[in-house]
Amino acid sequence: MSRHQYDLIQCMKQTGPVAGLVCQQCDGRCPVCDSYVKPTTKVTICSDCSFGHLSHKCIMCSNFLGDNNENGTPAFYCLECVRQDLDREGCPRVINVGSLKADMIVRRKKA
To answer: Tens digit of pLDDT for each residue in 59-95?
Structure first.
């Protein structure tokens, strides 16, 4: 996702054993390149992103997954990202909100 939208920033810290979860809208997409083709390796996230309020949010779009993560499914890297070792770069969680989503929130508060 952050490869195509340059205003998004990924965490990129060293990953831990906790699996990254995505919402129904992001299910099946690779968190690095957005492809839907050949999911192979499960995504793991760092310890900072797996605890607290971030543990109940999608790693790609920050949508709420529910109190017990009942709406979340595990995220997977695609085969091409695994072959290029992009799955070993670090935690793929998107930290900031993109400018389009921020503009939408501002417009909603004004109305």
So the answer is: 988 888 988 888 889 999 999 999 999 999 999 988 8
Which amino acid belongs to residue 2? S
Q: Is 39 helix (H, G, I), strand (E, B) or coil?
A: strand
Provide the terminal-to-terminal Cα distance of the chain, rounded to the nearest Å: 30
DSSP 50: S
As beta bridge partners, residue 94 has 10
Q: Identify whether the C-beta of residue 92 lies closer than 8 Å to the C-beta of residue 57.
A: no
Nearest residue to 62 via CA among 10, 23, 108, 31: 23
Tokens of residue 104, six digits: 């939408």
Q: Name which of 63, 80, 81 is nearest 71 in CA terms.
A: 63
